[in-house]
Amino acid sequence: MKPTKPLVAITGASSGIGKATAELFAAQGYPVLLMARRVHLLDALDIEHKVTAQVDVTDIVQMRDAIKKAEAIYGPVDLLVNNAGIMPMDKYVDQSLDDKYATLDVNIKGVVNGMDCVLKAMNARQHGTIVNLSSVAGRWTSIDHALYNGAKTAVNAITEQARRENGENNVRFILIEPGMVDTNLLDTTTNQEVLGAYLVHKNRLQGGLAACDIADAILYTYQLPQHINIKELLITHTKQKI
């Protein structure tokens, strides 16, 4: 039977927060469009009413095609979760230019591409929600995070101004800023000294929050009545200081 709830689109859905969000929304009866580069991990998820697509979020054509495919089955995207991100950590002077550009492309361009794929249609329907995953790194800087800090600060600013410009059309923008979460985000950090220092801090917090904690927050903010917009949600482990 075709689900009655609206379509939810999630980027970076193959692991971490994206996967947890996909599983939670699917369990709640939502059809889900799951986008990630590792499509075999999406196909392996035991989720009903899913559409999977191999998508590099820096490629807007891939994202548009994926959304078009899912909407042909389940109707328009009512919730977009811009979750895909990378965090290669290093001191600015030591970080490769490729890692710098990739951090900006995935974390900023990926969000812009997602928004551009759904926002005009949401405005036309006078309904929709866009959740952009930022970070505490968008609120203050921290050692070995210069490019990541910059990318997430940009996401914060883009989200806030887009909310101001589109709220009259009944479209919500929700900025989620997690602190330390136990995911594989560290996989893109190759500097072992930097990684080791970060893991010491992470271990003090027993890994930090779980991915499902953030998924719960996304579901909660989305399921509130449409006239309620939690504009910004900063979430950390109780013991995390910054």
From TrEMBL:
One GO MF term attached to the UniProt entry: oxidoreductase activity, acting on the CH-OH group of donors, NAD or NADP as acceptor
Report the coiled-coil segments. none
Asked whether the UniProt record includes DNA repair among its keywords, one would answer no
Could you list this entry's UniProt keywords, alphabetically sorted: Oxidoreductase
* SUPFAM superfamilies listed in its UniProt record: NAD(P)-binding Rossmann-fold domains
Which superkingdom is the protein from? Bacteria
| Keyword Oxidoreductase attributed | yes
Pfam families in UniProt: adh_short
Q: State the similarity comment.
A: Belongs to the short-chain dehydrogenases/reductases (SDR) family.
Instruction: Name it.
Output: Oxidoreductase
